[in-house]
Each structure stands twice: as C-alpha cells, then as structure tokens.
Design brief:
By secondary structure, this protein is of the alpha+beta class. The chain is built from 30 helices and 31 strands. Strand 20, helix 21 and strand 21 form a beta-alpha-beta unit. The longest helix is centred in the C-terminal third of the chain and has 19 residues. The model has no long low-confidence stretch (mean pLDDT 92).
C-alpha cells in the first residue's frame, strides 16, 4: 500500500502510519478534549462569563468574527468553510501570539428559506431549523474550529430575540435630532413640545393639539414608524420584500418571483436620518474601497438644489444636481405615478394618460431606466413656470422618471442631458443652448462651432462657458466654472424664494415588515384607537405562537393586486390580548407582521460577548472591553469587531443595516463603539465544475463522466461544463464529510488554505487534496516511527543550514499568518519539512518550532505530535516561534563583476567583505582574468554589496 493510501489499515500497512483512519481517531479525540476542557473559552472582564484574572493574564483582546451562516437543510459543502477555516487559523495564531481571543459561531435561523422548506415538507420550521443547526454544529465541530461554544446563539431562541425585540423598542422610542446629529429618547422630544420649545408642523402649540394629534406628531418623528408607502409586493412569496431583496430584473432574490410596486401600510426604519453618518464614517473603517464604494453608491448622496415650478396643480418641486442649467429648461417631466398627474391632465388627455400609466406600471424600474431604449411619454396639456425667466414650459409624463428618486419630477435641460436631448428630439421640443462646448467637441463631430442645437447630434455633457443664462437680477454669462455657476444660482434661488441648496439621497427608509410566520414578532400592541405601544421589558420576549398553520397565503405570480395575509392574523386568541400598560386593563391587538431576517443579524456580535446575561443585551463593561474604540491604535478609531470575515454580497444589506442599528444604540448610550465592524475582510469563493444538459438544466456533477478532451456525459447524454460558485443550485457541491472520511479534517483545512490567497476565488479539485495529505504524512514520519509509534525526534542541535532555514521560515510564516496570507505560509512550511526529510533525524528544536507554526493550520495532528514530544499542555496557547534576527542575515552574497560596463563574471564573498577583499576576489575570478587578457586595470570601482566595475 502506498504512502498516499487513505483507507483503513491492511496487513502490510505500518500500524502507526498517518492514514485517514488515524487522522479521524486523532481529530475526534482532540475535539472532545477541547470541548471537555473548555480550551477556547474566552474570559470576560465582567458579567456571567467573567474571569478577571484570566483576562489580565492573556494580554490584548482580539474579537474575530465570521458572518454567521443560515442553517440549510443540506448542511455545509466544502465551499462554506473557506472563511471559517481562515478565521480559525487567524484566531489560533493570535492566541499563540499572546492575545485574548473571542471567537464563536451562531446561526441566523429565521426567514424565508426555513419557512419555504417547512411549507414544502409540511414540517414545522422550528423542527427543521433545529435539526439543521444540530447537523451544522456537528460539521463545524468536525472541522476543528476553535469556537467558544458557550457563546453560540441562534436568532430563533426566545432568549435571543427577546433582546432583538428590546432593541426594536429602543429604535421605536427614539427620534433623530438633526441639530445634535444623533438619536435621542422620544421622551425628550415630548418634553420639548410640552415646554414650548417646539411647535407642531402647522405652528400650533402642544396644548392646542388633541391626544390623537399629539400621537401623530410624535409618531412622525420616531425612528421606527408605520407608514402607507410604496413597497415591493411579491405575490409568489405572499410577502413584501426590501429594495435590496429585489434583483436587477425586478424579481425576488429568494424564489425568483415577480415583484410589484404597491402602496401598503408597513413598519419602516428611518435609516435615511443616518445617511450622512453612514457615508462619512466609512472613512473610519478598515474596509476595502470596493465595499465602501458600494455603500456610498447605494446611499447615493447628491449635492444640488430644490427648485419650485408653479403650475395649475400647485408647486412642483424638482431636485437637480445642476441648478446652474435652469435657463436651459424647456420642459418638465413627471413620473407617471406623480400625485399631480390627474390634476394636470386635461379632459382630452385623461384616457391617453391613463393608458400610459398602466403601461408604465407594468415595467420594472430597471427597464424604465434603460438608457438604450426609445423614449416614450405623454403631454399632460398643462404648463409650468420656469422661475428664472418666467417662460411657460410644457409638462410631460414619461416612464424614465421614477417616483422613488428625488421628487418624481425633473426639469429637462436637453442641451446638457442625453435622455432629455433624445426626448426633446423625438417630441420636437425646444433645445435652448446655455453653454458653448469647446471647439474640439465640434471638431470630433465634424461640425463648425454653433449654438444652433438643431445641428448637434447629441447633448453636450461637461463644463463650458455659460451663454443665454441671464435675467434682470441674475447672470451666469461669461462664467466658465460649473461650481461657481451652481453657487451663484443657489444664492439667487434662495433670494427669490424659488428654491434652495439641498442634498438628495437614493437611500430609502428600510422596509421592516414581513407577512410571514417564521420571524421575530414585534413587541407592539395597538390600542382601540389604533395607536402603537411598545410592551414593557418585563413582557419580553413576545414569543412566536405555536401553530400548524404557518404557511403564508401566496398568490399567482402575476396577481399584482392581491393583498398579503400574515399567518399570525389567523391566531386570534394570540392576537387579541388584555394588558395593563399603565392605564388599567384594556384590550389590545398584537402586530401580526414579523421582522425581516436581517433583524437578528444586526446585532449578533454583541450577544456573543455576553450570551447568558438576563439583565441586559450586553454588559457595558464587556462591550467596551471587546468592542470599545482602540485609541492606542489611532485617535479616531471607531471601535467594533477587530476582524470580520464574510462575503461581498452583504455589502448593502446586512452591513448597512447593522451599522444603522449600532449607531442608534451608540447614540442612546448603550454601546461605546461607533461602528460594529472596524475591519472587514471579504473571503473569496470556492468554484467548481458544473454541468448543463441540452435543456440548460444543471445535472449532478458527481454523476458526470468523461474528460475535457473526450467530452462529458451524464446518463450517456452530452453535457456542457462551466465553472461556478460551489452550491446546491449548480449541483456541484462536495460534502466536507466525504473529505473527513477520505483524508481527515486537517488535510481539508490545509488544502483550502493552500489553494490561494484567502480573498481570491479558487477552483476546487478533489484530486489535488492528496498533495496536502502527503505533506502531513511526511511531517508525521519525520517525528514518529510508523512501525512502533515512538517519537523519533532527537535532542541534537540542528546543523547551521537547517537552523538558518528554520528561522527564515519562522520569519516568513509569522508575517504571512498575521496578514492572512496562509497559502504563502504553507509553502514555506512545506519547504522546511522537505529540508527536514533529508536529515538523519529531526532535531527537537526544529520539530517543536514546526509544530507550533503548523498548529493554527492543522490543530489536531500538531496536538498529537506535541504530546508525543513529551508535553502535557495544549499547544493552543504555546508561544508562536520568533525568528533569531542573526540567522536572517546572509553569510555570503553574490556580486556581479563588470569589465568596461559589461558583466563578465560573478563572485561569492562574505556579506561583510570590505572594499579590498571584494576587489581582490573580483580580480582573481577566472572569467575576469580571461577578459582582461593581461591588461592592467586603470580603475576598479566597488559598490559595496552591489557590484564591481573594472575599467581597462
């Protein structure tokens, strides 16, 4: 049997060879030992998990966090653990470097996937979720991840979502003070109204308002509020979905069902109040510029102005980033959904407009914004007044204007905007020129310089001198700078009371209701007048009621005008409840929506810190210790998790939502950190071959036969190969259980870390795993006799060459481990092990250093070898090796020798050789002597450590 045979022992296999069977025995034993001993339990400075002495003994803290997984019914495939293994290697390395590391794993277990699976199988989602969690815990433990399992949580645990509900109550009972630029308790706002420091929007005092009017005023300020708002209604799912859960082609990212815009009464989170802080504070974070750019673009902050146009229906306000182009406005365009359209439409236009609105409603936003399609629109028959020149300009409706951005109305400047130019050309509308493009612009288009826009083939988009831009009070003519023109126009708009400079955002408030069963109930009840009230802390958690009727009511995919029905609506005994909330016992009605899946993941990192605390979601001293600002690193450090690892796909979902919740908690004084995640690292993906049949349907990759040269078949039929992210949908998943059985967890860990940089995607090749397995076999043989199992390490000091190789390896591995470049660290360790293989026996100093360097990567085999070397303690906290600087310096160096500027030889000299020694060695070199041919050098120039140049 060969050294790479991974099957159980046969008669001719040495009894103590490192095989898959031995690997599994070692791994299972050590996993149980770690669990029994609480090896990876991290001490807290306070609270239920407090151990101040251990905190003091372990050194600086480090919080390492994975984006926690959803417990799928099929469990993990080998692509899932890539990031988990990476964080485990890093956490283990940092423990050995003297850090107090907190590292654990929980489960984001509410939401659509579990509910849909329950609907399909008829099994209650609580049962399937718990089964899935148990399976994933088993698979994660089998990987040897060094989690502090005391801290593991599930979002479906009532003791967890009690605090999710409590945080929602904090958001509901808060408002954003724009003057203070932070959230404050709602009671402070009420006090300001009562004291007369504030008045209602209609200028009435607090005492003049009825109780219902007071409630309305306060509710309009809350950070969590109920609103009749445009939402994304998905009949196929029977629920609404957030903007971020709608794909570019207008379908749900879960299930791929059509999504329609509808007005519905829903819970909203006022995330827009934090738009500026969410953008500005990105500068404090150690995130990639790509992720920061995605968040900036999603928030979409634009500086511009609001401009008022008077019409027969009232004032139409537009937002524009180019108020300086107002003189070029020759028509207006409203979104078909704009509330003024009906009032503006003349009697002879009503039918045409109604038909157009219906046509526009059938289109998705991405279709309407496609700049390549032909422009369509309808003239309303009405006009508006351009405030800068008094001109009457026609008002059109067109579907390329969306109600969800700006005000749903635009001022059309066709000479400077491509869409407006196309629209004006199609409908023969005026295109007044207000800028003179540079001569080069005309030359590129084969034109003479002209302001006759009828000759222009397209709009001019750029900065150029203004023309035709003046009235009796205002003139931009002669200005050449766009910024100056904007400033002059904004000042005039404010003087003329026709508008003002402002900032606009693409970000919309967060839709926070779901018409589902499997989610966190809201801690809200409604009184007889329909006013919402948060339940007191003593009544939390509001537990999800037991029911077998958990399926949401779904509709035909295209049933746009259907209405959601929450499963909780059916449970009237739960919905209607008698409570005493301070005004005596009254009948209340519970909210029958549930929170979105994102709720539980908005704050889970803080519950990891203090998971058993029943008095608060996280002890302030514990939060400050693990997540407080690290001002010793830099004065503006925001605090938060020290290393957060996960996929880039969460850039504008989870990451944005979690930052918002965290900032609210910071403003209200519940946390010391301004941001939840100080450093973010996006791991790559494991790609795998996937195969499609002639119907373009994926087939099981494991059932495909053939090769690239011969072609691939499935059930005898040809299939086409492609590469994609490993997963269930592409039917190309490989189970880690197969790898444990065939090679052991250490081999799988090592292979995934050696495949490439952690932040890069890489192709999976099962046949390549054996390379890492062979390395571990050689490592084992270098320290253990395969026949007897005895340790073969000797106490003899290593020779000079081996010692130098060892310390150079230590130097590189330590640097690469700290930088998360595990693949290059592994390459150096393989090189060292190959060098050791050539020795008669492995010196103890080398063996122990190798074990300590490899321990974060392959923890099971190194624990076993550490014991065989005679140690009783775990290697998990043994100090990581440090290189001897003296052994990193080269003893000799190679220096090129030039004769009259051309390299004629190379000499090897001591690294510290002086000029005379270097010159003598150069002149004694055989190739140099031959080149000189007896000539005496005129000059010898020595550049120490670099080169020798001989001039003849």
């Amino acid at each position: 049997m060969s050294e790479t045979d991974t099957t159980a022992h046969s008669a001719d296999t040495p009894a103590h060879r490192y095989t898959s069977a031995l690997a599994q025995d070692i791994e299972l034993r050590w996993q149980q030992t770690w669990a029994d001993d609480g090896t990876f339990n991290a001490p807290n400075p306070a609270g239920p998990l407090a151990d101040p002495d251990a905190v003091a003994a372990r050194g600086d803290k480090l919080f390492v966090l994975d984006m926690f997984p959803y417990p799928s019914g099929v469990g993990l495939h080998v692509g899932h653990p890539l990031g988990f293994i990476g964080t485990d290697v890093y956490a283990r390395f940092q423990r050995m470097a003297g850090r107090n590391v907190i590292y654990t794993m929980g489960f984001d277990a509410f939401g659509l996937p579990a509910e849909q699976y329950a609907v399909q199988t008829g099994t209650h989602p609580a049962i399937t979720t718990n089964d899935n969690i148990a399976n994933m815990r088993r698979q994660l433990r089998r990987l040897g991840l060094s989690h502090d399992m005391r801290r593991s949580v599930s979002t479906t645990d009532p003791e967890y979502y009690r605090w999710t509900q409590w945080i929602f109550s904090q958001v509901f009972n808060a408002w954003y003070d724009e003057d203070a630029e932070r959230a404050r308790p709602i009671d402070e706002l009420i006090a300001e109204f009562e004291a007369g420091d504030r008045v209602a929007p209609d200028e009435r005092s607090w005492s003049e308002l009825s109780p219902a009017e007071r409630n309305e005023v306060i509710d309009d300020h809350r950070l969590a509020y109920v609103s009749e708002a445009p939402v994304n209604w998905c009949p196929g799912l029977g629920t609404v979905v957030a903007n971020e859960e709608v794909t570019a082609d207008g379908r749900s990212d879960r299930g791929n069902f059509p999504v329609f815009k509808r007005n519905m009464r829903q819970w909203m989170m006022r995330i827009t109040a934090y738009a500026d802080r969410l953008i500005d504070d990105l500068e404090l974070l150690d995130w990639t510029e790509a992720i920061k750019a995605m968040q900036r673009n999603w928030i979409g902050r634009s500086h511009g102005a609001k401009v008022d146009f008077e019409s027969s229906a009232g004032t139409i306000t537009v937002f524009t980033t180019r108020p300086d182009t107002l003189f070029g406005t020759s028509f207006m365009v409203l979104s078909p959904e704009h509330p003024y359209v009906d009032e503006l439409a003349g009697p002879d236009k009503a039918d045409e407009i109604a038909a157009y609105r219906k046509q526009a409603a059938a289109k998705k936003d991405f279709e309407r914004q496609d700049e390549t399609r032909e422009k369509t629109g309808v003239f309303t028959g009405a006009y508006a007044t351009n405030p800068v020149n008094g001109e009457q300009i026609p008002i059109w409706i067109a579907d390329y204007v969306l109600m969800g951005y700006g005000t749903g109305a635009i001022m059309a400047v066709p000479c400077g905007d491509s869409r407006d130019f196309e629209f004006a050309r199609k409908f023969d509308l005026a295109i007044p020129a207000i800028q003179t493009p540079p001569p080069a612009w005309f030359k590129e288009r084969g034109l003479d310089v002209t302001l006759d826009t009828r000759q222009w083939p397209e709009a001019f988009v750029g900065d150029a001198p203004y023309v035709n831009s003046s009235n009796g009070e205002l003139s931009l003519d002669g200005l050449v700078n766009k910024a100056e023109g904007i400033a002059v126009m904004n000042a005039w708009l404010e003087r003329a009371n026709a508008g003002e400079a402002t900032i606009n955002y693409k970000l919309r408030d967060w839709l926070f209701s779901r018409q589902r069963y499997w989610g966190e109930p809201f801690p809200i009840v409604y009184d007889a007048d329909g006013n919402p009230h948060t339940l007191p802390d003593s009544m939390l958690p509001v537990e999800l009621p037991e029911t077998e009727s958990f399926s949401p009511r779904t509709f035909d995919d295209d049933d746009e005008f259907s209405s959601p029905e929450s499963p909780l609506d059916r449970l009237q005994d739960w919905v209607n409840v008698e409570l005493d909330l301070g005004d005596g016992v009254q009948m209340y009605r519970r909210d029958t929506n549930v929170m979105p899946q994102w709720a539980g993941s908005c704050w889970y990192e803080m519950r990891y810190l203090d998971p058993t605390n029943t008095e608060t979601f996280c002890d302030p001293a514990v939060e400050e210790y693990w997540m407080g600002p690290q001002t010793h690193i830099r004065p503006d450090h925001p605090g938060g998790v020290d290393l957060y690892v996960g996929g880039v796909e969460h850039a504008v979902l989870h990451l944005l939502y979690a930052r918002f919740w965290h900032k609210v908690l910071f403003d209200l004084g519940h946390v010391s950190s301004k941001e939840p995640y100080a450093r973010l690292f996006n791991q790559g993906y494991i790609m795998a071959a996937a195969f499609k049949d002639e119907r373009e349907i994926y087939v099981e990759a494991t059932e495909v036969e053939g090769s690239e040269d011969a072609g691939f078949t499935h059930d005898g039929q040809p299939v086409a190969r492609e590469w994609g992210k490993m997963g269930k949908s592409l039917k190309n998943a490989v189970s880690p259980d197969e790898m444990y059985e065939e090679y052991g967890a250490d081999t799988l860990r090592l292979y995934e870390m050696a495949m490439g940089p952690l932040d890069a995607s890489r192709p999976w090749e099962t046949r390549d795993v054996v390379g890492m397995y062979r390395f571990l076999q050689r490592l084992w043989r270098n320290m253990v006799d395969e026949e007897t199992g005895a340790c073969t390490v000797v106490d003899t000091a290593p020779d000079a060459a081996t010692d130098k190789l060892l310390h150079r390896t230590i130097d590189v591995v330590r640097i690469e481990m700290d930088a998360l470049r595990f693949n290059t660290a592994i390459a150096k360790l393989i090189e060292l092990n190959n060098g050791v293989t050539k020795l008669d026996a492995t010196p103890r100093a080398v063996a122990e250093a190798m074990i300590r360097m490899l321990a974060p990567l392959v923890p099971h085999i190194t624990e076993e070898l550490w014991r065989k070397l005679g140690h009783d303690d775990t290697v998990a906290y043994i100090e990581f090796p440090t290189a001897d600087p003296a052994l990193l310096v080269d003893d000799t160096i190679e220096v090129p020798v030039q004769v009259n500027g051309k390299v004629r030889g190379r000499i090897t000299i001591p690294a510290d050789a002086d000029q005379a020694t270097t010159e003598a060695a150069a002149l004694a070199d055989e190739k140099v002597i031959a080149t000189l041919a007896g000539n005496t050098p005129k000059k010898v120039i020595v550049v120490p450590g670099r080169m020798v140049n001989i001039v003849v």
